Amino acid sequence: MCHVCVINNVKSSMLSRRDFFRKSAAAGIAATAAGAVSARPALATATGKVVDLTHTFDGDFPTFDGKPGILYTENVNFDQSGYQIWELTIFEHSGTHIDAPLHFSKDGTSVAELDPQNLICPLCIIDIKAKAAEDPNAMVEPEDIEAFVSANGEIPEGACVAMNSGWQDKIGEAGYRNDADGNFTFPGFSKAATDSLMEMGVASIGVDTLSLDPGNSADFAVHTSWLPSGRFGIENLANLDALPATGATLFVGAPKHRDGTGGPARIMAMV
Amino acid sequence: MCHVCVINNVKSSMLSRRDFFRKSAAAGIAATAAGAVSARPALATATGKVVDLTHTFDGDFPTFDGKPGILYTENVNFDQSGYQIWELTIFEHSGTHIDAPLHFSKDGTSVAELDPQNLICPLCIIDIKAKAAEDPNAMVEPEDIEAFVSANGEIPEGACVAMNSGWQDKIGEAGYRNDADGNFTFPGFSKAATDSLMEMGVASIGVDTLSLDPGNSADFAVHTSWLPSGRFGIENLANLDALPATGATLFVGAPKHRDGTGGPARIMAMV
Predict the structure, then answer these.
(1) Taking a C-beta distance cutoff of 8 angstroms, is the pair B21, A28 a contact?
(2) What PANTHER family does its record include (chains A, B) (predicted)?
């Protein structure tokens, strides 16, 4: 068949993405029924909505140490060359980003070595907005996990468990990071909670704040236990309010630079 | 119920990820049957295997301009502080990375502004390994698209179409970038091919080489037409041999720094 004929045929009979995925979904169910699902299934049928959980990142985005997390230097100029490239200076733990085990363990797993099978996983969201509104250093505690399980069922092995403290509404305000006296002030996980999640086989945790530990933490108890265990974390998540407590599939677009302790990442979810 | 009871109950009755996704898949099919699928479905049932299409990236990874694409400077030292952070200098178009429209259009869409609905999409892989073995500047041509469609069916709207030229086997060799005389030498897309893909509603293209255009291109015809049209590209893809020609779902973990012309990305697929 000639080129033009084929192209016209393609255009006239083009499958929509809906048709494509509907057919794939049916094929997937057939595979499930036949017991052909692999040992580490990681994605289910999705209705197709992508929710971006990543903040746009620039030198004004709040950071833990208060310094700009990214700096831009012109590398190639458009007017001179017809294209353009930035040279970026990036401090790894800036923006919506990953904490790899290597961040808090001298010889731990780097961000490039994370098991890809854990980078696409079920997402469970624990909402502590009510208590965070009362206590800006509120923590996800074991009783919040109990309540979540009672309401939503068990947390799947390999899942990511994210805290929704409502803190993303403070982006652009000093209160995202500090109280009126300049003390670190934001919600996080308690070590008792992350110890429980470890026992459940959870692979990663995420927060909508600057740190896995709450702002008033004196010992970084979650960082110093969760990360050295070989698990990873995600900080500065966005848009968790757009997702259900359970049922979404998380995509962790972790960077893959060798020996990285973490880095700005693209985090998305499917619902 | 007490905390310990709940945790033990969770542990004893924990759903495997397989069970979780099997249930979700069934729910998804029900939604499809009820016509509840959204206008932009983007994921189908998956058997659960994640294939990482991203090369590990360091200063030795080949770049178009031959200079290191990433440099590391110690920001926080583990022995001094109990944790560690790198300061990274990254040239945007290095490693497995995105070309956003802004790379080749002065006021085009930045990498942070790409529509997230196009970052999770069907992946179609056109294999030109045989002709690339004969001609190291071989191109995906319209007839390769015709042959792909004849063998695999129509290319879904919104898909990513990737070239598999077998070039990843040359990583670590001078031949990934140059011929014996030092000329740029690697396969890519022809503009006639990408013009056809544009008409089909394809949203992105990917290559397992340093550039969307072949090494001997004199005019960067694909870069200067595809990117300014508002579409994006992915360069230096890995592991395409591990995927079927069609049926995989691509996850494009594009970075999200403001005004970015592109950048190192985490690319994965589900099969």
Answers:
(1) no
(2) CYCLASE-LIKE PROTEIN 2
